[in-house]
Amino acid sequence: MFSSQLISLSANLFFQSVVKHLLTQGDAMMLAAMSSLEDQGIYFLASNYGGLIARVLFQPIEESSRTLFSSLLGLSDVNGENPRNIEAAKTHLTDVMKAYGILSAFIFPLNPVIIKQILHLLGGTEWAGSEVYRLLSLYCFYIPFLAFNGITEAFVSSAANGSELRSQAGWMGVFSACFALAAYLFLSVGDLGARGLVYANIVNMTVRILWSLHFIREYMHHHDNDITLTELCLSPHTYITGFLMTTITILGPELFHSDSHGLIGTAGFCASYIILM
């Protein structure tokens, strides 16, 4: 009734979905096993609110990009290699990656000061100076990693054949081991609580992004359309400015008070950074 190729592809995708589900739920299992109830509550508060950005902003882009990649690269597989389709997929990927890079350049330096003001408005000084603020600020640093992983894996899932999907599923197991090891080191050894789990998730996303970028580079090279790092990255000026501003917000949070003067200072800081960018 069904071709063996279709059954094999379906099995690969099913196994990959199971591994991704375990990775998605792994943070809850690790947190329940290695942290206190207070840390669990704070983490889920931060992940629920921080995850809204990923679900509302990045998920539609990821799904529409997956559809576009499947259309362009699938046609190339069915009708033979089409350089225009490969180039169109590459252009879309680099455009989205650069857009995410620009957004990240704003998120990293500005999120601690903006989050502090928002929490002060919602919960007063107790929230603005509590572990909730520190964890939510850290979780916002994690969101760009989610975005980059989403778009790169969308390309991989659209471009990979059956054997490559099996290889990716195998590597997912390696990524799970990396996450478990990082979670153990940050939670049990480092005793960082909920923040340790965010660090472990960042490690997990980093290795997944690196693997996807390696696949994309090899895929493009195979189709005689090499992709370089400069096509994916922003200008050095952007990175230097973002790094300096991020350092200021991390090392000097007391500079941004929650009163009216603090609001003015925060607005001035944000405006100055936008102008410098």
Automatic annotation (TrEMBL):
GO cellular component: endoplasmic reticulum membrane
Keywords of this entry: Endoplasmic reticulum, Membrane, Transmembrane, Transmembrane helix, Transport
Membrane topology: Multi-pass membrane protein
Subcellular location as annotated: Endoplasmic reticulum membrane
Pathway per the UniProt entry: Protein modification; protein glycosylation
Transmembrane segments: 99-115, 135-156, 168-187
One Pfam family hit: Rft-1
Function: Intramembrane glycolipid transporter that operates in the biosynthetic pathway of dolichol-linked oligosaccharides, the glycan precursors employed in protein asparagine (N)-glycosylation. The sequential addition of sugars to dolichol pyrophosphate produces dolichol-linked oligosaccharides containing fourteen sugars, including two GlcNAcs, nine mannoses and three glucoses. Once assembled, the oligosaccharide is transferred from the lipid to nascent proteins by oligosaccharyltransferases.
UniProt record similarity statement: Belongs to the RFT1 family.
Official protein name in the record: Man(5)GlcNAc(2)-PP-dolichol translocation protein RFT1
